[in-house]
Description:
Elements: H1 9-12, H2 21-30, H3 44-69, E1 94-97, E2 100-106, E3 120-121, E4 124-133, E5 136-141, H4 148-179, H5 204-211, H6 215-221, H7 224-243, E6 249-250, E7 257-260, E8 270-273, H8 274-303
Antiparallel strand pairs: 1-2, 2-5, 3-4, 4-5, 6-7, 7-8
Helix pairs in contact: 2-8, 3-4, 3-8, 4-7, 5-6, 6-8, 7-8
Amino acid sequence: MPTISRKYFNDHVTTSVFNNQERLALALEAIHKQSIVQSQEINPLTVRLLNVHNALTKISDCARGLAVRGFPSVFVQDGSYTGPVNNPELHGTAAQSGSMLYVQSFVTPKTGWTTDPFIRVRGMNDYYIEQRDSNTLRLIVSNSEVHTFMLYCGLYDFFANLDTTFDRIRLELNSIYFDGSKVLSSSTSNGNKFWAQYLDTNNTKVQSLVSHHYGALVSILTGPLSLGIDTNTGKYRHRLVHDGELDLLIDRHTGVVYLPDDPLATTLVYHTELLKLATKVYSDVQILFHDIYQQVILDIATRGALPLV
Length: 309
C-alpha cells in the first residue's frame, strides 16, 4: 500500500481549495531547483494553516455552546434593580475564575438599587451575582458547559497562527522570485522582509516584479482579497499578540460573540461577529494561497529558471 502523504494541507483538510502545494513542489523539481517550498516530512506552511484550522474549530465549538446556552436576560430578583425592567445591560469580558466562569457586567446603579451580593437567580441555580463595587456586578456561572477560557485560546491561536502563515508564504515568494535559495534569512534575503510590503504597489520589490513582467502575481498580492484579509485581521492580531488582550461582547440573549469593530478605538463598538469573520477569513486565505501558488506554477512554466527576478 502506498504511503499516504501528510505533507500538504489538502492531505489533512481534503475539502480545501488550497490543493496545489504538491504541484508547485513538482514544478520546482522539474527544473532541478530544490526550493524552500519543499521540506522533508511536512511543509511548514501546512503546519501553520492547520493550526488556523484547528483554532477555528475551537472557536466554532465555543460559539455553538454559547448560542445554545445563552445568558439570562433577567438575573436580579424583582425589586433589586430599578433601571429598565429587570434587564440591565450585560457585556464586558468573558474569562475564567477558578472553577467558575463569569461574565463581568458594567451597569450604572440607579437610585435605590439594592442587591444581595450572593443572591440566587430564580430558576437558574447555576447563576448568582457578586457585587464587586458600587458600579460593577459580576454574574457568576458555575458548572457551565460554556468554556469561555477555551474561546480565548481559540481566538489567540487563530489570529497568531494566521499571521505566521503570511510570514511563511512571504519567505517562499522571496525564495522563488528573488533568491532561488533554500535557506533564507532576513539579513540576506533580497526579497521583501515583511508580508505587508507585498501589499504595497509602491514597494520597490513589488515594482521589480512588475518590471520583470510578473504583473499577474502582483495583481493577486495587491488585490482586494489579499488587502481585505489584512484589513480584517491585522488589528486583532496586533492587540492579541502585542497587548495580550482583546475585549469581546457576548450577547446576553443569543450568546453570539462579537469582536470590536476597531479594537484600538477609545470607545468600542461591536458589530463584528467573531465566528462569521473567522470563517470568512479562513476561507479567503485558502483561496488566496491557491491563487498565488497557481500563478507561481504558471510563471515557472513560462520562465523555467530561478530566481525569476
